[in-house]
Specification:
It is built from eight helices and seven strands, in the order E-H-H-E-H-E-H-E-H-E-E-E-H-H-H. It is of the alpha/beta class. The protein folds into two domains: 167 residues, Aconitase, domain 4, CATH 3.20.19; 33 residues. The protein has a seven-stranded mixed sheet.
């Protein structure tokens, strides 16, 4: 089981860049590892570090002004290859939520499978988040998975977001696919028994004719 997600209330890290692809999130040369641990060290590696492996002071993740559990990114986040490592890297770095006005479908699926909540908002709401953070780097965002809402605390602006009901249940309970099946074990057994009983009854009716 993973860590369940419901309420996330946090300051944000604003990555005001559009069309961020998975190779920028985690470069291909770091994909050899099979464990999910440690991928956060190389999140946005080529943007965070120069050729001498020194942190680039102008990149947002290297700016101590910004921190939090919520990454807010520009439109079209997670495009490119289907590498699941992109979600691993973001989660391992410490983010629980990624906000954008558009996500690549495969990235969104990988994120949900790794207990990383992708919150898709309108372009207007995304701009409002960036504006709030520019005004105050300590601005906070409130995300409720149960209510499927995201709110900018400073302004009170709120918007609803969509999530598949199955994935919502999994995140709220910390279930992966196997955990979800096990949680419904009794119902599955009961259904199977009903099918067996119905088949026996049908056979009996046929033999009695």
């Amino acid at each position: 089981m993973g860590k369940s997600i419901n309420i996330i209330h946090s300051t944000v890290v604003p990555l005001e860049i559009e069309n961020v692809d998975t190779d920028q999130i985690i470069p291909a040369r770091f994909l050899k590892a099979t464990s999910r641990d440690g991928f956060g060290d190389n999140l946005f590696r080529d943007w965070r570090y120069d050729n001498n492996n020194e942190p680039k002071k102008d990149f947002i993740l290297n700016d101590p002004t910004y921190a939090g559990k919520i990454l807010v990114a520009g439109k079209n986040f997670g495009s490119g290859s289907s590498r699941e490592h992109a979600a691993w890297a973001i989660k391992d770095y410490g983010f629980d939520v990624v906000v954008s006005s558009f996500f690549a479908d495969i990235f969104k699926s990988n994120a949900l499978n790794n207990f990383l909540l992708p919150v898709q908002v309108s372009e207007e709401f995304l701009a409002a988040i960036f504006a709030a953070v520019k005004k105050d780097h300590k601005a906070t965002i409130h995300v409720s998975l149960e209510d499927q809402t995201i709110t900018i605390d400073a302004t009170g602006q709120s918007e609803s977001f969509f999530i598949n009901n199955y994935k919502k249940t999994c995140l709220l309970n910390g279930y992966d696919d196997i955990d979800y099946l096990l949680s419904n074990k009794d119902a599955i057994i009961a259904f199977e028994q009903d099918q067996i009983n119905a088949a026996k009854e049908e056979i009996q009716q046929i033999t009695e004719k």
